[in-house]
Design brief:
There is one protein chain. The protein has 392 residues and is mainly beta. The protein has 3 domains: 109 residues, Immunoglobulin-like (Sandwich), CATH 2.60.40; 112 residues, TonB-dependent receptor, plug domain (Ferric Hydroxamate Uptake Protein, Chain A, domain 1, Beta Complex); 138 residues, no CATH class. The protein has 4 helices and 23 strands. The longest helix has 21 residues.
Length: 392
């Protein structure tokens, strides 16, 4: 009798589970800005009266599996935009496609002066709120507003991030005070090859004899910020991330083709007072479009830059003249030599980016091609003043 009762209970539970599965469906769609048609990442999408919901991805797309079947109301909210809703009918065991165009909340009066910057950070703020990690994000609009020459300078504007510099230009990222070799740089989640010393062995640099070189850092000075869609800096590791960085991880997403045809051109010029030249310039051009009902996208970008990195510096050598401390508490010293350095440098950067993507029902296939080259021409003039033969 007990066996029969157990069998009946198991059958009832199976039928109840099957009925529950049949009483659900899938909702798929996209949340975008109604004016610009750009996707809104991190938007909150929920079903009214339930705890079922999700957040949109970097392209503004979302998927809600196991949504209750029947008549439902979908709610969408996003910081800086007016919340919206839609009454839909979810088919049992079927798929419902529903897109949402969001309208930005208009600002009145003098506040419209900063509306551009505020709107540029809306996406970044929403992504940070929707993330389950400790992350700082710079959006595409914010990157283009900043006068940065390379990706390293754009990343350095985030809290807890600094850079190493070469001739006054940032080139490598320091996270939480840890050297660049302890950090990971990725593009779309794929690690970049190291551009530091890839040979493990004794270095040939002066004063480092017998030391070991194992530099796995990445030089970002060759990468134009106009290629980048967003920058995310993760300062702590989670179980779903690779455990190959101590300081943190920098992930960059490259730009893709939007839904409509777009073309942009930017040209800037500058003047260097030290060299008294007007040879500094920057040119960026891009074109993008989509084909086959927005399934296939093509994005092409090219950039060229030239600028001066002239600098002056001075080094001095000294020797201790006595082992007796002076009245100021220090050992007496005298200058033995002074070296005056005059550095002339012109840097030229060439870059290109071609991204092909094909949208699938549950994702996309991307082909990313990136080219970047940095040429540096420099001359050093040194004047050494030797005082070692002079007596004090």
């Amino acid at each position: 009798m007990k066996k029969s009762f157990g069998l009946i209970a198991a059958v009832m539970l199976f039928l109840l589970g099957a009925q529950t599965l049949m009483a659900s469906g899938t909702i798929r769609g996209r949340v975008f800005d109604r004016d610009t048609k750009e996707g809104l990442p991190g938007a909150n999408v929920t079903i009214r009266g339930t705890s079922v919901g999700t957040a949109t991805d970097l392209n503004g797309a979302f998927v809600i599996p196991n949504a209750p079947a029947g008549e439902q109301t979908i709610l969408v909210s996003y910081i800086g935009y007016r919340s919206t809703s839609a009454a839909v009918t979810v088919p049992e065991g079927g798929l419902l496609k529903q897109d949402f165009g969001m309208v930005a909340v208009a600002l009145q009066g003098q506040e419209v002066i900063v509306m551009g910057q505020a709107q540029g950070q809306m996406q970044a703020i929403n992504q940070q709120l929707a993330s389950d990690k400790i992350v700082s994000i710079v959006s595409e609009a914010r990157i283009q507003e900043l006068p940065d020459f390379n990706a390293a300078q754009a990343i350095s504007r985030l809290p807890g991030v600094s850079t190493l510099q070469s001739s006054g230009e940032a080139n490598k990222v320091v996270i939480r005070g840890l050297a660049p070799k302890f950090n990971q740089i990725t593009i779309g989640g794929v690690s970049l090859a190291t551009t530091g010393s890839t040979q493990i062995g004794v270095t040939s640099q002066g004063g480092t004899s017998g030391s070991i070189s194992n530099d796995r850092s990445v030089d970002l000075s060759m990468m134009s910020p106009y290629m980048i869609k967003s920058i995310s800096v993760f300062k702590s590791l989670t179980p779903d991330m690779n455990a190959n960085s101590i300081g943190g991880t920098v992930n960059m997403e490259l730009r893709e083709a939007p839904s409509d045809f777009h073309s942009d051109f930017l040209f800037q010029s500058g003047y260097t007072q030290k060299s008294n030249q007007y040879g500094n310039f920057r040119g960026v051009a891009s074109v993008s479009t989509r084909f086959f009902d927005d399934q296939f996208g093509v994005y092409l970008l090219g950039n060229i830059e030239q600028y001066d990195r002239d600098a002056d510096n001075m080094n001095a050598g000294y020797e201790i003249t006595s082992d007796t401390h002076g009245e100021n508490g220090y050992l007496p010293v005298r200058v033995t030599n002074v070296q005056l350095n005059r550095h002339f440098e012109t840097r030229k950067r060439f870059g290109g980016n071609l991204i092909l993507d094909y949208a699938l029902p549950s994702g996309s296939i991307k082909l990313v091609n990136m080219f970047s080259r940095l040429n540096s021409e420099y001359r050093d003039y040194r004047t050494i003043l030797n005082y070692s033969s002079l007596t004090s």
